Amino acid sequence: MKSQQEVLRVSVETERELKLLRIKRILRREVGAWGFLLPHFFFFILFIAIPLIYGLTMSFYNWTLIGETRYVGLENYSRVWSDSRFWMAVKNTVIFAIISIPLVMGVALAYALLLSKKWYGRLWLMTAFVAPTFFSSVGVLTSWRWILGSHRAGLMNYYLTRLGILKEPISWFATSTRAWACIIGVTVWWIVGFSILLYIGALQRIPPEQYEAARIDGAGRWAQFWYITLPWMRNVLFFDVIRQVLLAFGLFDQVYFFTGGGPAGRTRTMVYYLYMVGFERQQLGRAAAISWYMFMIIFGFALINLFVLLKTVRAGAEG
Amino acid sequence: MKRFLVFFALMLSLTIGVFAQKIQITFMTPLGGADGAYMDQIIQRFNKEHPNIEVTHLVVVSSLEYKQKLATGITTKTAPQVLFIRKHDMPLFMEQFRTFTKDELKKYGIDIDDVYPSVLAGLVDDKGRYYGIPLDVWIFYMAYNKANFKKAGLDPDLPAKAGPLNREQFLKVLEALRKITPAGTAPWCENPSWDWIFVHLLWQFGGDLLTPDFKKPAFEKAGVEVLKFLMDLQEKGYLPKAGIDPGPVFESGDGSILITGIWTINPWLELFKENFGYAPAPLLGNTKAVFGGSHVIALPKVMVEDPKVFEAAMTWVKYLWDHALDWYAAGQTPARKSIAESKELKEKLPHIYLVAQQVPYVKTFPMFPYVAEILSEIVVYIEEVLINRSMTPEQAMKEAAAAVQEIIDDYWAAQKKK
Amino acid sequence: MTLTKRKILNLILSIVLWVFAAVWFVPIFWMFTTSLKQSTLATSEYPPQWIPKNPTLDNYRMIFAPASGISVLQGIKNSLLVAGASTFLGLVVAIPAAYALSRLRFKGRNAILWMYIAILAFPGIIFLIPQYFIIHRLGLMDTFWALILPGLGGTFGVFLLRQYMLGIPRELEDAAWIDGCSRLRFLLTIVIPYIKPAIFVLALMSFLGSWNSFLWPLLVLTSPNKYTLPIALVRFSAGWGDPYRGIGTLMAGAFVSVAPTILLFLIFHKYLLQGIYIGTVGKE
């Protein structure tokens, strides 16, 4: 009896001790984890979160930097909501995103797979594909606009007429379909480089034994790609989808340089609208309101994309 | 060694001493490319002649970025001290500029009455104070290829000699040129939906963008006529049917005529040499008008509160005013009668002199803050007509007017409650 | 038989790849050719000249000629300093944060993670003005800190690194735990080498982002001797009304600004191609 009680007491004691120890451990874990996060979190709060909250507040004001600030309630939101130009821009941007995102990622994946094999002069091949990404917009886009120039000596017109594909020089941005094709083509050329680098980085980490094992099991190239390569890249693809969505919805420079939004406003994008109605006018409250609409559209679009990605690409062994 | 160190310290303190006395003036301009280089030279000379002032040239070409830098700079008092600003970028900032009375300007040796009234329009407040000093006018002119004129059997000096061509003459010239122009190109190789050409013609056809009180659009009726005129030119093959890049087409010699800004005149003189023709812009409507704009010198109020800085800024402004001719060499027309009509200009810059004859009837954008947005809205409908052929001119201008009305209402809604 | 067939196939594939790379590079070569031409002649020539008949270095000379007050060389120096510091400090704060968000468990982790991702969906320009006022309030106007600090709060890099860190096999971590390895040591000795390619790509991205940024430095800097390269180069952008005016100088400017970054890429590329095979042994 007695001993039983003693045992009970001891066990209660140890339990308490254990509990204390666990709390201590959890505490250490939490504090430790926050220690890793904190340096970044500090700057995040200061330069991202505070500006964002400030922006949200200002979206209810008529806010210009140099005039007086005045509360206008939901007017900024309702004006944007009822502006047909905004919805046109949304439509244009969404269509662009739907076409360009898979295109960029597909092209990048193909190049990355090829470049991760050993080729003669692989570094130079890689440099050629990646180099466009290094240029800022002005040089690259001026040059492309000129290559796609409407005159006889524009490179595209010159060679296509020489080859007999075109009868006479054409204007590459004259119809909205052609203009979009040019914008998408140049965009792929310009931004695919970083995706290639990302994918090569991911491909390097797939253990070769995985492929060997699959080969012994008699898996073909396609099966290997589908059941090993893609699952191993899942986390990186997840990241790149988001990156591509952001890039697609940030489309501005290409349009600004090539078409200025034309023909007839059919290549205007959301960011174009944001600049025009927010910053050209210096109506920063309106700009903040537009940003909130854009946030909801972009976030929704990104979620749909991620859902599709996670459904199609099998979870990898890497979890 | 020791002596060297002492010498070095002495030199250092001397340079610092000189440096400390220097008043720094940042001069923000939108002048890219060759224009900027001309301005650089003027600044360099000024800095050499004025050891106690140092002017730095900050170039911001894009209007949007220029305005952003100005707005943020004014709120934190870190803006440039002197601006060289496009007149149509000014309306948002009117209350921020240091204003001058006529007499005050006279004190600094600047006679504002010498500036053409058409250029000063909108730059004077109701008490007769000036928001800034227009230094130049950039104005439309007609550039043409003399070799092509000869090939077409035209007198290559006709446009320059006859003064501004009238509509009939212009059409005749185009008809002759069409025959020698290669397929796929038009003799008047302009982008048909360029908004400035539309506004230029709108004024020549007696219309205007907005009513004088900025409450309503005023382009509907004349706009229809302009569109019909341009469509007619397109059908006859005088003007392209698609959006194109005018510069390279003209420079390659395929196209023959452009009505465009004076800023193109230097590179083309250099390229075509004696084959380059320049003339006043043809008058194609019922009203004598030509499209133009101006670079205005202005000082942000908050930046020149210190009298020392203000004096230094005015020294630089006066220097620019006195050396305007050096600036016009970059390809700008004078804003002042005394220079536009001077012998000196005629001798030094004959091409500028010829084009400057149009300045008395130049028109500039109304000083309404949302003009850029209004234009981009009108262009949508111009393109529906001239490029997509999906609307009639009447339909397009009606819808454009409605769209512009919305923007105007948006502006006034924000103002009223103030 | 199959071996030779495979060899031939490989040869064809490599030729195709080279042709593709060449085509990919054509516009850049064209830009370079243009930078060696006189601007007005470049836009008027017919047919296009791939090797300029009268090559000139005038465009490059013009860029490095001392214009009034703002020097391109000084701009390169400033930009190297700013971009280098932004990249380095960015990695210093982002790597531990990514580690915490991928490998450590703590309360609120998922909430923070989703906040970090969601915030990316806001257009970047919207942060511009509030950040400007914060920098002003902190008294950092017209300093290089104003160019470096705001970028440190960006969540993009954290997110990227986290995604790569997720791939580190669990067994590796368990083994380290058993060895009594501290988390910091684990991060330094195992995690960082494992994600080297990602660090390389992120470093490249943030370096380029800082290197090419124009509007932000334009707003916060006022002293000419602190201007970064894009501000010094903007005077060589096309004139107004005609995008091709001065195209030769424009292209020369593009090459001046891209040369340092390409060079850095070539120097450091090996970190990208290093295969990481450690710790894969335990996989079935």
Structure description:
Chain A is an all-alpha fold and 319 residues long. Chain A has helices at 2-58, 75-81, 84-115, 122-134, 137-147, 155-162, 176-203, 208-216, 221-249, 253-258, 270-279, 284-312, and strands spanning 61-62, 70-71. Chain A has a two-stranded antiparallel sheet. In chain A, helix 3 (84-115) packs across helix 7 (176-203) and helix 3 (84-115) crosses helix 11 (270-279). The radius of gyration of chain A is 27 Å and the shape is flat. Chain B has 418 residues and is an alpha/beta fold. Chain B folds into two domains: 18-135 and 294-335, 3-Layer(aba) Sandwich (D-Maltodextrin-Binding Protein, domain 2), CATH 3.40.190.10; 138-292 and 370-416, D-Maltodextrin-Binding Protein, domain 2 (3-Layer(aba) Sandwich). In chain B, strands 5, 6, 7, 8, 10 and 11 form a six-stranded mixed beta sheet that branches. In chain B, helix 2 (33-49) links the parallel strand 1 and strand 2. In chain B, helix 9 (195-204) packs across helix 10 (220-235) and helix 18 runs antiparallel to helix 19. Chain B is globular. With 284 residues, chain C is mainly α. Chain C has 15 helices and no strands. Helix content of chain C is 68%, strand content 0%. The two termini of chain C are 34 Å apart. In chain C, helix 4 (72-103) runs antiparallel to helix 11 (196-212). Chains in contact: A-B, A-C, B-C. Chains A and C meet through helix 1, helix 4, helix 5, helix 7 and helix 8 of A and helix 1, helix 4, helix 5, helix 6 and helix 7 of C.
